Amino acid sequence: LGWDKPARVNGMCRKMFGVSAVEWLDYQQCSKLIEALKNMVKRQEEKEGQDAGLQADSDSQG
After folding, report:
1. In 1-62, where does DSSP find H-type helix?
2. Could you tell me the CA-to-CA distances from 16 to 36, 37, 52, 56 in Å, in that order?
3. How many domains does the chain have?
4. Whole-angstrom Cα distance, residue 55 to residue 3?
């Protein structure tokens, strides 16, 4: 995801759970946060794959 600052994850904690920092999450909330992050990575990888495919298509047509 390219997140190099803890504030990004803490912001996600605030949005999802109303908690100001990841340290305040319980086990179940941590699990949900991890799954949400994994889904974000998956979507980003799929998007990058589609973008690469579009780039390859335009290269072959040009």
Report:
1. 6-17, 27-61
2. 10, 12, 31, 37
3. 1
4. 25
Per-residue pLDDT of the chain (62 residues; tens, 9 = 90+): 788 899 999 999 999 999 999 999 999 999 999 999 999 999 999 998 888 776 666 666 65
CA dihedral of residues 53, 59, 61, 62 (deg, nearest 10): 160
Range of 53's domain? 6-57
pLDDT on residue 1: 78
Looking at the domain assignment, is residue 25 inside a domain? yes
Whole-structure pTM value: 0.75
Query: Is 9:22 a contact under the CB 8 Å cutoff?
Result: yes
